[in-house]
Amino acid sequence: MEWVILSITSISFGWYLYLFYNGSNYLKNRDIDSQHFFINSTKVTIVIPFRDATEELLLWLNAFEKVKYAENAEILLINDGSVNSLLKLRKRIPLYPNVRLIDRSHQGKKKAIEVGVNLASHDIIICTDADTVPQQNWIAGILACFTSDQVQMVCGRVIPSGGYWLAQIDFLALMAASEVLIKKKLPVMCSGSHMAFRKSAFKAVEGYTGYLHFKSGDDVILLHKIKNHFGSQSIGFNDFTQASVQTPMPDTVGRFLSQRQRWGGKAVFYRDGLSISLAVVVLICALMTYGSFPVFWHNAWALGISVILIAAKILTDVVLIKSYANEMSVPVKSTQLALAVLLYPAYIAIVFMRILVNPNPRW
């Protein structure tokens, strides 16, 4: 039995290392360079679904004024059943002729996005969250990706801001892994804070039909539907300088675990072998990081192999996270990074158990 477990462990760690050992190279090699960056008059529609986020949207509108090509954007704010007053926001909107506020009943984020897509005047649609802050080249970088007719969806970089330090480091790891996989033409996940797609592609895959009853997964569901319909080459990545968005992190352990529960629950949407296999591999690697010691304690040879694989994975993760942090100019303390890597297997197990209990927590 030990050899069966060792074989499964070795295959899992080996495949993980194969995917990410050179990940830092993919982060440094940009898909978009200055040669692809030019004046672009293409019109876009920005869809922001929100609920009770007046102050966040006021800050977003201020930040958006500094974004290049902001004048080419139609902005649709989709109110998904806010309870708190939107008076301040309603008073502010008339100052922006390209901004519209659409009120809808509490039907969920995916339905709110569908409403925005149906009302959009332009084919290229950008989705983001109300609590983000876009950088100046955000729209320009996205449009540069869409210069290829083959590209139907664009994902992009997201910078974690504030919050609990473990949440920041874990988010850096997730975003780094997402970018590496997309650039390897193996798209599995992305962030709904920074994604764009062609309206025609959204219609071709019938939007979120069949998945509206799930509270989460607006980003991953659409990524997989477009990938399955148009192929992996249809997913582009916006990695241009100053083209990211910034998003706040959870400020407590409880909120951090709840957020990861929502995100981890997206794995139920996976239909292709690669994505399902990767989810299983990540779980096995997490469990066997510490599980190898009691399992192989009486087999020095097997334990030695496990320790080497675990050390190689830890080194790979550290290099990948540090590389992404440097790209995003996010300071990461070495002590916190080391502690995060050591804690990772524990909170992955906790999140996994929470997902088993409730795979579809509320948005």
Number of domains: 2
Oligomeric nature of the chains: single chain
Classify the fold: give the CATH topology of the largest domain: Spore Coat Polysaccharide Biosynthesis Protein SpsA, Chain A
Determine the structural class based on helices, strands and strand pairing.
alpha/beta
Q: Specify the number of helices.
A: 13
Q: Provide the β-strand percentage band.
A: 5-15%
Measured between the Cα atoms of the first and last residue, the distance is 42 Å
Could you give me the name of the CATH homologous superfamily of the largest domain? Spore Coat Polysaccharide Biosynthesis Protein SpsA, Chain A
Mean pLDDT equals 90
Computed over alpha carbons, the radius of gyration is 21 Å
Low-pLDDT segments, ≥5 res: none
The CATH architecture of the largest domain would be Alpha-Beta Complex
Estimated helix fraction: 40-55%
Order of helices and strands: HHEHEHEHEEHEEHEHHEEHHHH
Give the total of beta strands.
10
For the largest beta sheet, what order do the strands appear in spatially? 3-2-1-4-8-6-9
- The backbone outline, from C-alpha atoms, is globular
The top-level CATH class of the largest domain is Alpha Beta
Largest sheet: 7 strands, mixed
Keywords: Membrane, Transmembrane, Transmembrane helix
InterPro entries: Glyco_trans_2-like, Glycosyltransferase_2, Nucleotide-diphossugar_trans
Pfam families: Glycos_transf_2
Domain Glycosyltransferase 2-like: 45-203
